[in-house]
Design a protein that fits this description.
Layout: H1 3-10, H2 16-23, E1 30-33, E2 37-45, E3 50-55, E4 61-64, H3 65-71, E5 73-75, H4 80-86, H5 88-97, H6 99-109, E6 113-114, H7 116-123, H8 133-144, E7 150-151, E8 160-162, H9 169-179, H10 183-195, H11 203-206, H12 208-221, H13 226-242, H14 255-261, H15 266-271, H16 275-283, H17 285-288, H18 293-302, H19 307-319, H20 323-335, H21 341-349, H22 361-376, H23 384-392, H24 396-401, H25 406-418, H26 424-437, H27 442-454, E9 458-461, H28 462-491, H29 500-525, E10 526-529, E11 543-549, E12 555-561, E13 572-574, H30 578-583, E14 591-595, E15 602-612
Helix pairs in contact: 1-2, 4-5, 5-6, 9-10, 10-13, 12-13, 16-19, 18-19, 19-21, 21-23, 22-25, 28-29
Length: 616
């Protein structure tokens, strides 16, 4: 113990433990503080109850003895941080010319392992300029790759490790896999092994414990964690094949074994696999489901899997000589509208190859069905990629339209024009492609434009507009989703040709789609008003009119409001009604002919007065 520190203990001013800690902080000692970084003890001022520390950015900084003892960590002279303080230029030169030596020194200073973030803290700014650190580390990693006694992790959250002289780096990787807990951790550990396979002298032999542990882990856990278990087996096979490691040990679980056992849950698990592994799953089907049973399994996945799986299944069927089976399946799937958005995209992309037999207007209708259904559910939820493929492919619609029957083409074009899922610019662009291939249907677009010009704005009250919006929201958010569920349930009842529930649900679907379309068109034309400031010189929208019947002198009052404001009991009529049309524009005292229930169909009346409607 330092003599001065002992005196403080004898005087009762310091405990023995604190004195021992203080003795490690003698002048000249390098220290580390979590906030102020590295420094060196300059002097003791025991009478003043403080130490003076020269930190890198705070020279001569005073700390009270008690705080210094608890907050400062003494550093050995060969510690990277101590040398960074004492030999800054030397360490900067090392960082520049020998980054491997600098990393090794950092690892030794940290006890053999450290996170990459900690290395960055030690080096960036002081030894390597901040703006150059990323480039410096990339260069250092390349130089570290052949260095077997330093293991650089593939993830920043894993530590970099300095391998002891009596330990092989490959053993460290193997032990890292064996010690990993859980399938996700095993997947990452296997990736680390694959990345540094060059560290193994005889990988096929040295990795046997890994493959055995992997197989045992998968057998225990796949029922609860199918995706991760499948990913682990597939990554194993990919590594064995890519590096020509022979085969997994005898008795190891195969991908085909798992596929066979997990057939019910498989499609969902495959959707979330990395793209590169999906093909391996489907290439294992013939082994997993022998005697051509694999064909039905593969076709079932065709309508369930995601986009990355569709192409792999088609490739598998083609490679196995089952192109005719694929063609028949696609025709049936399109005809019955049992096609996913991903499958529709694949059919369009492969229209010159495997899907040529089903590339026609019926496919076009299937695409519109999918887009419309998604639009009614508030899309794009499932068909965003399908919409992009349909709109962005400049040649597809023309190729589809060119050989089509004119009557069928007109029906398809009319449906496209009326489709609420396209904005006006997109609709024009799509129709232009059809007309380019088949000019004879150009009159449809011209007729559509003429019809739109004839449409006038609907003047409506704000209240009635809100009611219509709520009605549309009810159809889109409640009725249509429920109808879709009803169709799905009814489809499970069997043969669709004799299925009353299915036909009824489909009829209801058509009604709801028509109602949605009408409401959307009306709301697009609607112009809201509160009827304030209307003129009463003549009858107009937002006026209350008293008329006297010419035959009976009976007085009747009409309130003329918006298109959706009719209320017979309150004598509120829409300005679009025949009675309103007869009155609008007429001044007080004018005689008018009003519609009537009499045998003549009309009656004569005189306008008595006109006043403004007060919405409040």
């Amino acid at each position: 113990m330092n003599e001065e520190a002992q005196k403080l203990v004898d005087a009762g001013k310091l405990s023995a433990a604190d004195a021992a800690a203080l003795s490690k902080l003698e002048p000249g000692t390098h220290v580390l503080h979590k906030s102020w970084g590295v420094g060196r003890v300059a002097e003791w001022d025991l009478l003043g109850d403080r130490l003076l520390i020269d930190f890198e950015d705070k020279p001569g900084h005073g700390l009270k003895l008690g705080f210094a003892i608890t907050s400062l960590t003494p550093l050995p002279e060969d510690h990277l941080m101590a040398r960074r303080f004492a030999e800054t230029e030397v360490m900067q030169e090392m960082a520049k010319k020998d980054p491997v030596a600098l990393v090794e020194l950092a690892l030794k200073s940290a006890g053999g392992q450290m996170l990459l973030d900690d290395l960055e803290t030690m080096v960036k700014g002081a030894l390597v300029p901040e703006g150059s650190y990323k480039k410096w580390w990339e260069s250092a990693k390349r130089q570290l790759k052949p260095v077997k006694h330093i293991v650089v992790p593939s993830k920043r959250t894993d530590p970099m490790v300095l391998v002891a002289d009596d330990q092989k780096a490959s053993d460290l990787l193997v032990n890292g896999f064996l010690d990993a807990h859980g399938l996700k951790a095993k997947v990452l550990a296997l990736k680390a092994i694959d990345k540094d396979l060059g560290m193994f002298d005889a990988p096929a032999e040295e990795l046997k414990p890994v493959f055995q542990d992997l197989s045992d882990t998968v057998r225990r856990a796949w029922r609860l964690h199918l995706k991760e278990a499948l990913q682990l087996l597939l990554a194993r096979d990919e590594m064995i094949e890519a590096n020509e490691l022979g085969e997994a040990p005898m008795g190891s679980m195969k991908v085909a074994d798992m596929i066979s056992e997990a057939r019910e849950q498989l499609s969902e698990a495959v959707k979330s696999l990395p793209v590169g592994l999906v093909g391996r799953v489907y290439r294992s089907f013939p082994e997993a489901f022998p005697n051509r049973e694999w064909i039905n399994e593969a076709l079932a996945h065709f309508t369930q899997t995601g986009g990355k799986g569709v192409g792999e299944i088609a490739m598998l069927l083609a490679d196995q000589g089952e192109v005719e089976v694929l063609g028949d399946f696609l025709k049936k799937a399109v005809r019955n509208r049992q096609v996913s958005a991903d499958l529709l995209i694949w059919i369009c992309r492969k229209r010159q190859e495997a899907s040529a037999a089903v590339f026609d207007l019926d496919l076009g209708h299937a695409i519109l069905d999918a887009l419309q259904a998604d639009h009614m559910e508030g899309g794009p939820k499932r068909t965003g990629r399908l919409m992009s493929a349909f709109v962005d492919d400049k040649e597809m619609l023309g190729e589809m339209a060119a050989p089509a029957d004119e009557h069928e083409l007109r029906l398809f074009a009319k449906r496209l024009i009326a489709g609420s899922m396209f904005d006006e610019l997109t609709r024009r662009s799509l129709m232009a492609r059809i007309i380019k291939a088949r000019p004879e249907v150009g009159d449809l677009m011209a007729g559509s434009e003429a019809g739109k010009k004839k449409e006038e704005a609907l003047i409506v009250s704000w209240d009635s507009m809100e009611r219509r919006k709520k009605e549309l929201e009810e159809i889109v958010s409640v009725k249509i989703p429920q109808n879709k569920k009803d169709i799905q349930i009814a489809r499970e009842y069997g043969d669709l040709r004799e299925n009353f529930e299915y036909k009824s649900a489909k009829q209801q679907q058509a009604v709801l789609q028509r109602q949605q379309g009408e409401l959307e068109r009306d709301l697009n034309r609607a112009q809201g008003t509160d009827f304030a400031g209307v003129s009463t010189e003549t009858v107009g929208i937002g006026t209350i009119v008293e008329v006297a019947d010419a035959g009976s002198d009976e007085v009747e009052t009409f309130t003329i409001l918006g298109a959706w404001d009719g209320d017979v009991e309150k004598n509120i009529i829409s300005y679009l009604s025949e009675t309103a049309k007869a009155l609008i524009g007429q001044p007080a005292g004018a005689e008018v002919t009003l519609p009537s229930d009499s045998e003549h169909g009309t009656r004569q009346a005189k306008i008595q007065s006109i006043r403004a409607f007060n919405a409040g």
